[in-house]
Amino acid sequence: MRPEGVRARARAQVRAQELAASAPAPVSTSDVFETVLGNGLKVLIQEVRVAPVVSFMVWYKVGSRNESTGQTGISHLLEHMMFKGTPRYGKGEIARLLQRNGASFNAGTSLDYTNYYEVLAADRLELAMEIESDRMAHALIPEEEHRLEMTVVRSELERNEDNPHRALYQVMFAQAFQAHPYHWPTIGWRNDVEAIRTEQIRHHYKTHYMPNNAVAVVVGDLDRERTLAMVEEHFGRIAPGPLPPPVVTVEPPQLGERRFKIRKPGDTRYLMVAYRIPELVHPDNYALDVLAIILGNGKTSRLYQSLVEGKLATEAEAQNETARDPFLFVAQATAAPGIQLEDLEESLLGQA
Fold first, then answer.
1. What does the pLDDT read at residue 4?
2. DSSP output for 79-120
3. What pLDDT does residue 266 have?
């Protein structure tokens, strides 16, 4: 071997060692541990030792799917009321306590679930469990707080109504689902939300917020055995309740294409095309997820290259929007100035 080759090889070895030394340490993770407490609470725990942080979540199996006409939006309204305190934690104290301990926290309501989470230092994990277990069993839902919170909820309703894209999205689901509860938006119909009484919110809470209708998830820098013991200590004492009534409505077969237009002030025009897909656990969703990426995820996707680079649209994307029951695959685009929606639709369907 020539001297130049020896030196080159030596330099390559040194560089490889430098890169190895500067590379981030491999993340230490464990398999997900799953168990069910005696009261029916499912518990999922995973050790991820990348930083001294943990995430704690409680997922309740209740969303807009579990509502009925006249009470749409009640799950979302209950989510708001869950921050109004318990006999142990006064009004606003939950948020103040979490903020003082450096936690990131929030909640969300969807079609099939409502979830609450905290991300905080690993040595503060028990605080999150104390809060979530307490409001699982002892949330206060005062009538006066319900009245005050309606100001916030009305603001959310108005933002949806004033957003043409969001309005189109909601009408699309209302057209696609004419019998199933996916017909209405998670936030609910305004008239229903305005008419909901505090006692109805309390009943919704007692019906759905129980350990045997929930899943607790803990991920982060933790010891599995100690964490499980902590979950048992704080949640194991909560009595289970009768399971909520199942959702039995099945959307009947669609007999033909459904097409609609909505008109709102503004110059921006949106196009959405939806196709029916199976329920979340159906194996076809793996292929549909890949299809959504190929068709409408990023600048290399077919919709972007065809519609955006072709100057027909300013935005284009596709999503496989799975849910517990059969749902929708959605392709959408925002028309470029001067482009007719009919031309945009023809080009979109040519890719889909």
1. 37
2. HHHTTS--SSS-TTHHHHHHHHTT-EEEEEE-SS-EEEEEEE
3. 85
The overall average pLDDT reported for the chain is 92
Are 221 and 49 contacting, i.e. CB atoms less than 8 angstroms apart?
yes
More confident residue, 318 or 352: 318
Q: Above pLDDT 70, what percent of the chain?
A: 92
Q: Specify the fold of 270-351.
A: Cytochrome Bc1 Complex; Chain A, domain 1 (3.30.830)
Q: What is the CATH number of domain 28-235?
A: 3.30.830.10
Can you tell me the mean pLDDT for 159-163?
89
Q: Where are the domains of the chain?
A: 28-235, 270-351
Which residue pairs, CB below 8 angstroms and at least 24 apart, start in 319-324? 319/292, 320/277, 320/285, 320/288, 320/289, 320/291, 320/292, 321/277, 322/277, 322/279, 322/280, 322/285, 323/65, 323/111, 323/112, 323/182, 323/279, 323/280, 324/65, 324/111, 324/112, 324/279, 324/280
Token pair in block for residue 286? 């793996």
Q: Which two tokens stand for residue 242?
A: 């009768």
Global pTM exceeds 0.85: yes
